[in-house]
Specification:
24% of the residues lie in helices and 29% in strands. It is built from 10 helices and 27 strands.
Length: 404
């Protein structure tokens, strides 16, 4: 009998691991997958495109239900199939409806959950996050009959939500607690260009703002947002996009060691060697994850060990940032501020809306910000990751690969 591999989580990280596993050892395991959503596996990165109207749910499905059948995978999908308990002693998982599966290897890929601000009114109707297709459908319902959307968070997800709702005809205001948009990804100059471009699309901003409370109407539905400075914004739909936190409660309850996430080693094993974990639920060498590139790399390493090739180790590399808003091109990677010893190269073409900033230390590129022209982003990232000595090309580096 084949050893049994059970996967908790039908999202991108877990299923990418299974895809990699099937490529390297297709007949090794009897695989069972539990997913809380009633779909096959879909591309969560493309939810912004669904909100904008560029894609439908069908367009962003990665693996439909037939794929599971074709690959001999048992899929338990839907809210009632949410795994509620891991019994490590008996090597079983138990779902909400009582479904039980026994494992020889277990993969936890429970992802993350949105952070909702701890303020009065956060439980009102009309207060949502932006994590899955259910959230997108709610936004589309509101866009059809409501006017004013307020988005908390000037990060990637918040800006993508703002753009999508503005395209759907809503009056959108983005609240950000910093005076720089995408402050973790952009410097002040690039952020100013981005804000100006989004304002031209009709999106309003309230920067360096401190939220006070959410006010409801007689039906306990949000009607306004108030701020520490005493100001108030009318609101029909409030979207929290201030980040995520690893969804590790299931692992904690099973006695697995967790800190900010489920702690894993370089082979993606938890402290229980037959239990692996990947994706936004994990913590690796002190880091947690929210972008897709490291998740896919984790999937490769994890599949390598599940298929018993056992040679790969996961290494965290700098992750590049891109904004999925049509017509806006930005890219950042690495340390784009630098320290007192770093050299900064700038290129600006105001007429074309192009801005480039490269940060160099000890003849190596350590960070980059590109706005308006991102064609060389992948090349800069390669130079950074490979720690290439750029001394010989320093004078033309800012102009891109074509000039080297």
């Amino acid at each position: 009998m084949k050893p049994r591999l059970v996967v908790i989580g039908n999202g991108m990280a877990g299923m990418r691991t299974i895809e990699e596993q099937l490529l390297s050892a297709p007949d090794q395991y009897a695989i069972t997958v539990f997913g809380a959503e009633p779909h096959g596996n879909y591309n969560r990165i493309m939810l912004s495109a669904v909100l904008c109207g560029d894609k439908t749910l069908e367009d962003i499905v990665i693996n439909d239900r037939q794929w599971y059948v074709d690959n001999g995978i048992r899929l338990f999908a839907g809210e009632e199939k949410t795994v509620m308990r891991i019994d490590r002693k008996n090597r079983t998982v138990i779902a909400l409806d009582g479904t039980v599966a026994t494992y020889d290897r277990l993969l936890i890929a429970t992802g993350s959950k949105a952070i909702i601000p701890a303020i009065p009114g956060n439980d009102l109707a009309g207060v949502i996050s932006f994590r899955d297709i259910v959230d997108v459908n709610k936004m589309l319902e509101y866009a059809a009959h409501s006017q004013k959307a307020v988005i908390l968070g000037g990060g990637l997800l918040g800006l993508e939500a703002a753009n999508g709702l503005a395209l759907r005809g809503m009056q959108v205001t983005v609240i950000h607690n910093h005076n720089v948009l995408l402050n973790r990804q952009l410097d002040q100059h690039a952020a100013a260009l981005l804000q100006a471009e989004l304002e031209q699309r009709g999106i309003k901003f309230k920067m360096a703002a401190k939220l006070n409370a959410l006010l409801g109407d007689a039906d306990a539905h949000i009607r306004a947002v108030t701020f520490a400075d005493g100001s108030e914004l009318a609101c029909d739909l409030f979207i929290a996009a201030i980040g995520v936190q690893p969804n590790m409660a299931l692992a904690q309850a099973a006695g697995l060691y967790c800190e900010r996430g489920i702690v894993v080693n370089d082979t993606l094993q938890t402290y229980d060697p037959i239990i692996y974990a990947v994706g936004e639920c994990i913590q690796h060498r002190g880091q947690t994850f929210g972008l897709v590139a490291p998740l896919f790399e984790q999937a490769k390493v994890c599949a390598n060990h599940l298929s018993e090739h056992g040679v790969a180790e996961y290494v965290t590399l700098p992750t590049a940032t891109k904004l999925k808003v049509t017509g806006i091109h930005l890219f950042s990677v690495g340390d784009f501020h630098g320290d007192a010893n770093a050299e900064i190269l700038h290129f600006t073409d105001t007429a074309l809306g192009i801005y480039k900033k490269l940060v160099i230390s000890a003849n190596r590129l350590i960070g980059a910000v590109l706005y308006g022209d991102t064609a060389d982003g992948a090349w800069y990232q390669e130079l950074l990751e490979q720690k290439v000595n750029i001394a010989d090309i320093r004078n033309v580096l800012i102009f891109g690969k074509a000039h080297v």
